[in-house]
Write the structure tokens for this entry.
Amino acid sequence: MQVLSLLLLLLPFVGFITLGFTQKLISRCTAGILASFVIFLNFVISVIIFLYSDSHSSDWNILIFDWIQFDNMRIPFEITIDALSTLMILIINGVGMLIHIYSIGYMKDDEGANKFFSYLNLFVFFMLILVLSSNYLMLFIGWEGVGLCSYLLIGFWFQDHANNNAAKKAFIINRIGDVGFLVGLFFLFSTFNTLNIKDILQQASLITSGTPVLFLITICLFIGATGKSAQLPLFTWLPDAMAGPTPVSALIHAATMVTAGIYLIARSSILFILSPITLNIILIIGTTTALIAGLIAIYQSDIKKILAYSTVSQLGFLFMAIGFGSFDGAMFHMFTHAFFKALLFLGAGSVIHALDNEQNINNMGGLSKKIPFTFAVFLIGTIAISGIPPFAGFFSKELILGEAYHHSLFMGLITTLVSLLTTLYMFRLLFVVFIREASESVKQNYHIHESPNTMLIPMYVLAVLSIIAGFLNVPKLFSSNQYFETYLHPVFAEAFQLKHHLIENHESITFEWIIMIVPLLIIGSLIYFSYFRFVKLKQDTTQYRGINKIFANKLYIDELYYTLITKPLNHISEFFREIIDQNVINQFINWIGKFTLIIGNKIRMIQTGNAGYYMLIMVLFIISMLFYNIIL
């Protein structure tokens, strides 16, 4: 087990190094195959670890080396194998492998494909460090690593200045959240005198709920999570991250990076359960983000940005689940979301590939007949994310909806509204791109073609998973088999115990049929509405007025940040550059230089080159020293 766990980290890193040094020596196809094979081996190892750990029902801490030892502080480079980390490595390596294979076809004509594959391997390496870490400092290394990789991949096509700006925006906004995480680490160490996750959670379970220091720790960790998992007010980087190649979007949104914030909080579940104020803040932020992002997605015209705002909304949905204390519900929806969101992004990439990099949905239409296989898998992804049975999204959303209604009727209704928004923007996207009458640009494009098998096969696999994955946790109304909850129970058992002790639980199945059937009826109405509006009436999706225009322009949040933050900082920087730097610092340094020149000009007069003159000076100096000694 120790050797397999080490290989899990070593293989993608070796893949990154190998592809990095040989990128000019091997073909693009070979690089893609090597990168994919590395992650395939990792997936096989992940399955073996899962089967072994599931049969032995135990956790392992595997020491790689002693990292930091100072006085009474010991921070090892150590990995933890338990139910939660095993689940994450299955998602990361499984979905990551499919995205790698897809990239072979997608990047076949790109000159930088070899470098691209090396970055993908590095991305997987850092994400594995993040989820396998036994301590928060090691987790922070993986956290920063995926931030670095996102910067490299978002700005991969750096010849376009807009892509560079998107990469810098993602990097800087994530650094804001990371400061919160880093401050949280200092609070953790000063409070518990360790950064080992298991030790901290054991000590925390003995602390009284609502203790101020727990609030400070959890709110700092949540600030870090808002950056990585794109929540208000730090979500604006994620839609712009679509500047990178589409496989990058799929990897960031489905298997890595944006799931890091959810994982961090789930891993620290006991700390958050003992800080109800933080949970309420998470609930408010998650709800607001989910609603705003869902409404914005309805009015977007870029196929990838619609999916990006969909991800922001779904992440808000996950944070809502955490706010209810449903850590297993959040992880289950994150699990199913990885499949259908990766499928939707890869499907969008297939559309973009077919239309020679066209991304505006208003220039599409009628593609169901021209690229039928892409349409079929995109339809499956749309049904799954909309929560329609028996696809995966229905089961994971139903678990969260049940928790929401148990929390309060109001939050249940809000959660249902967020779920319904998903149906609206996703079926609008589906109908406009594939069903509506073809646009003029599509009619005139004679080169529309289905994607190669290297792109289609990963989508087929994800489509199957998007259909069947939900059956791992069937609602209690139909079955007593909740395998997913049972599997994660050892990880969250103590948190659930504290939750039930601290919070009165009104668990009931009275509303379960209602909260299941009524949303499905509304979903059916919304699908018909979308079809009637965008297919029958051929509603224009470019001209908006009033409140619609505000949402179409993303609530002007980027403009607001520019006005309130970026512009003032630019003015302050300009002031310091012109007044302080040039007129004070530069002038002072120039004066030192001039003074040195003046002194040098005076001193150099001594250097005459006359030996007699030098002898005279030496004699005078000796006489002066003798005279000085006689006086003393």
About this structure: Strands lie at 60-70, 73-81. The mean pLDDT is 88.
